[in-house]
Write a structure and sequence with these properties.
Helix content: under 10%
Structural class: mainly beta
Distance between the termini: 62 Å
Largest sheet: 5 strands, antiparallel
Order of helices and strands: EEHEEEEHEEE
Shape: globular
Radius of gyration: 17 Å
């Protein structure tokens, strides 16, 4: 049997529009929100962000913020990951699969996206407090 040289797959092109990804861990116990490079650029490459939610329209906003803000999530590394487990449980969301949300710029340093595709919890999710 002869070996056949395999071609190197081409990397997919980066998405040029701001996008937010919401994912759940494999066991479904933790939820994360990720900002792509275009979203970070639209926000002005902030060190931290805070989240705002409108129950009437089921839309969320991500605002550039100072790390000193008590409501701010610090963005570290290339992943631009925001742990949203507690806040999503409080709002009644229970993502079961990864969803991608196009975001539009609102204001100078804010992005807005719709959460209609994110699964809701069938019953209230109790938040376990540490002892």
């Amino acid at each position: 049997m002869a070996f056949v040289k395999l071609p190197k797959p081409k990397r997919s092109a980066a998405i040029k529009n701001p996008r937010v990804t919401i994912s759940a861990s494999s066991d479904g116990r933790a939820y994360n929100l990720f900002l792509n490079q275009a979203a970070m650029a639209a926000l002005g490459e902030p060190a931290a962000v805070y989240l705002a939610y409108d129950r009437d329209t089921n839309r969320m906003q991500v605002h550039a913020s100072s790390p000193d803000d008590p409501a701010a999530y610090t963005l570290n590394g290339k992943a631009h990951r925001i742990p949203v487990t507690v806040i999503f449980r409080h709002l009644g969301f229970a993502p079961t699969e990864t969803t991608y949300h196009p975001a539009k710029k609102t204001g100078r340093l804010a992005l807005e996206f719709n959460l209609d595709e994110v699964a809701r919890a069938s019953a209230p999710i109790e938040i376990v407090k540490a002892a």
